[in-house]
Specification:
Function: Essential component of the vacuolar proton pump (V-ATPase), a multimeric enzyme that catalyzes the translocation of protons across the membranes. Required for assembly and activity of the V-ATPase.
CATH architecture of one domain: 2-Layer Sandwich
GO biological process, one term: vacuolar acidification
Distance between the termini: 28 Å
CATH class of one domain: Alpha Beta
Helix content: 55-70%
Strand content: 5-15%
Number of strands: 10
Number of helices: 12
Subcellular location: Membrane
Membrane topology: Multi-pass membrane protein
Strand order of the largest sheet: 3-6-2-7
CATH topology of one domain: Alpha-Beta Plaits
Structural class: alpha+beta
Largest sheet: 4 strands, antiparallel
Shape: elongated
Order of helices and strands: HEHHHHEHEEEEHEHEEEHHHH
Pfam families: V_ATPase_I
Radius of gyration: 37 Å
Length: 437
């Protein structure tokens, strides 16, 4: 109660800062030294690189809908000899994941292209049959091409005999661009093309955006190489997915058979790739929580080391900080334990030094008194040794709260809310242990 009444006695040994003033106070240490002139800047960059890799891992794990396990106890900061191992593991894991993801994306695009090709062949075959039936009813005679008498215009044998004079371009165009595509063909080719199109029954994935989109299959018939070049440029302008058009029924059958085999193979390979990717992500998810906490602690340690100064021999770091007198023994024990773990031949030590500067105010709280202390700190923190008014607000604040919410209904609601916060106090989803470094 004495600590809550006046605050802890302090001495100049180790630094304890309020969260609101930590940034400003730390920025005052080594103010004339550039960040790039500090000794541990390379280690901080390594920690930032590991944080980038961990961010990528967490993003991929969440994208695969894999739960991220969280430990009840935060892991300690890794030893120096283990930092390089963690860095190598993360770099190796990132390289493997990026390669698997790149191969998966390539397989997915190939499968999408083959699926579009199959849909295009199926729809254009209906175009040819419908046109053939229509042309067979006309029985038109062409003096320029006598071989075309009583034959459909788009018969495959007739196409083969026409050679370079008659050509076809087929593919898929986005639903929103069909009208503009048709107008551009008519204006640019001056009517020397025949455009036939139909909407696909199913939506296909857009390779650029990944969203399911409605597509139209088109078949352009043209005469002459120059017209064909114009048609190809227009297709490129409207981002059409152009695929080769078979010249005969035999070629069409061979293409369809080959596409079916390739699609089945791609489905099998893509399924195995996704399974392997999920296995790698599941294995990484088991350790990613520990790695995130360890990297945060490493980065915090190196930031503090950058704020320290060296002695004349550049072998010893010197720092001045405020420490409660009651924690001096814990500080000495921590220095001894750190020296033992690092295997240093010379142990780290500390001394208390006299000072005329006013120490900061430290008031220890628990989960009950911290709420009242925060209310008092919102108005201002008292000077060192001043009486702390939070002790009296423990009594006065509930009384004033009862005055404001004196009726039974408000009191019942607040009681239920307080009871829920107590019951779910240790719930894993409500704890933010990753913020503690």
């Amino acid at each position: 109660m004495g600590s809550l009444f006046r605050g802890e006695p302090m001495c100049l040994a180790q630094l304890f800062l309020q969260s609101g003033s930590a940034y400003e106070c730390l920025s005052e240490l080594n103010p004339n030294v550039s960040v790039f002139q500090r000794k541990f800047v390379n280690e901080v960059k390594k920690c930032e690189e590991m944080e980038r890799i961990l961010g990528y891992l967490v993003q991929e794990i969440k994208k695969a809908d894999i739960p991220l396990p969280e430990g009840d106890v935060a892991p300690p900061a890794p030893l120096l000899k283990h930092i390089l191992e963690i860095q190598e593991q993360l770099q190796k894991l990132e390289t493997e994941l990026r390669e698997i993801t790149r191969n998966k994306e390539k397989l997915r695009r190939n499968l999408l292209e083959l699926t579009e090709y199959m849909c295009m062949l199926d729809v254009t075959q209906r175009f040819v049959r419908r046109t053939a039936e229509y042309e067979s009813q006309l029985h038109a005679n062409y003096e320029e091409f006598p071989s075309m008498e009583n034959e459909p215009l788009v018969d495959y044998n007739c196409m083969h005999r026409l050679g370079a004079k008659l050509g076809f371009i087929s593919g898929l165009v986005h639903m929103a661009k069909v009208e503009a595509f048709e107008k551009m063909l008519w204006r640019a080719c001056k009517g020397y093309t025949i455009l036939t199109y139909a909407e696909l029954d199913e939506c296909l994935e857009d390779p650029d955006t990944g969203a399911n989109t409605k597509w139209f299959v088109f078949l352009v018939s043209y005469w002459g190489e120059q017209i064909g070049q114009k048609v190809k440029k227009i297709c490129d302008c409207y981002h059409c997915h152009v695929y080769p058009y078979p010249n005969s029924t035999e070629e069409r059958s061979a293409v369809v058979e080959g596409l079916n085999v390739r699609i089945q193979d791609l489905h099998s390979v893509l399924h195995k790739t996704e399974d392997y990717l999920r296995q790698v992500l599941c294995k990484a998810s088991e350790s990613v929580y520990t790695w995130v906490i360890q990297v945060k602690k490493m980065k915090a340690i190196y930031h503090v080391l950058n704020l320290c100064s060296f002695d004349v021999t550049n072998k010893c770091l010197i720092a001045e900080a405020w420490c409660p007198v009651a924690d001096l023994q814990n500080l000495r024990h921590a220095l001894e334990e750190g020296s033992r773990k690092s295997g240093a031949t010379v142990s780290s030590f500390m001394n208390t030094i006299p000072t005329t500067q006013p120490p900061p105010t430290l008031i220890r709280t628990n989960k009950f008194t911290s709420g009242f202390q925060n209310i008092v700190d919102a108005y201002g923190v008292g000077n060192y040794g001043e009486v702390n008014p939070a002790l009296y607000t423990i009594i006065t604040f509930p009384f004033l709260f009862a005055v404001m919410f004196g009726d039974f209904g408000h009191g019942l609601l607040m009681f239920i809310f307080a009871l829920l916060t107590i019951l779910y106090e240790n719930h894993p989803r409500l704890q933010r242990s990753q913020d503690e470094v």
